[in-house]
Design brief:
This protein is mainly α and 308 residues long. Helices cover 55% and strands 6% of the residues. The chain is built from 14 helices and 4 strands. Helix 2 packs antiparallel against helix 3 and helix 9 packs across helix 10. It is globular and about 50 Å long. The chain starts with a helix and ends with a strand.
Length: 308
Amino acid sequence: MSGRDAALSTAARPRIAHAAEADYQSWVAEHIPHQAARWERVRAYRRFVEAWPDLQAWFSAPLMERLGFVGGPFRANGRTDAFMATSYLTYLSLVHGIGLDHDFLFARKYARLFSIEGGVQGLGFDRSLFDGHLARMVSLGYSEPTARSRLTWGVGRLLLARGDPDMTAITVEDVFDLAAALRAFGARDDFLELRSALYQNKPGLFAGADAGQRYARLHLANVHTVHVLLFIIWLSMVRVLHVHDARRGVRIAAWLTGILVMSSTRGLIRCRSSRSGLRLLAGAPSLCSDQTIFRSRRSSRSWPTLTT
């Protein structure tokens, strides 16, 4: 059981059920800017609800069936009813609080999750805060496209798994749960079967006996980026903990306490400063097996971080 599951009682979890069509149609009309896309969203909703009238049954079904690769219509372009319903499932998660499981999230791209065209303004997502986080990572030496891609992948899946669009509610435990689930996904017995279905147009991608490990290693870099971001936020909060707004100070202190407790009990984060800069080390196995190097804008020195 994950930390989030342990923290939420059964009574506190939202009921696993479809949204009413009128409610979803109203949301689509308000937040999806293009008329053709609105029609397609509603059609996808209807097909998905018709195929899975019991949403709990969909969550409980085998992953290949939930993805639509078996037991349902399969289009020539590889898109299934579940694929077309991705936007509706995003709406269920971030608007209705029905978190999506990690395995399903790893099987979808969500490349436009934070776009205007994707309805981000109606999902409760703070784009200005995300842009601020993006700027932080660029200042550490990431290129803007790399930082955007990695944060979109990592933050997006964390929010969808939590069923909560509030980025400030993401915890260190959430990040490490995501990393553990990603490793488990790469170790699935049916990973090659999933890969063949998901990447039909790229038969050479993630092929071979170690395909699952390579898949996990590739995407763990995204999780690692979010982990670094959390640590940088933690450092900045330490420096400004004595704020004038007492209520904000209490919130910051509570958030920091959560990180410090996680760090001390699970050995996830230790920090050490030296003349060569700040280094982030992992007491437990790190999120990435490879060393990631950041370059300071003010110096040509490389800063190693989160090494194994």
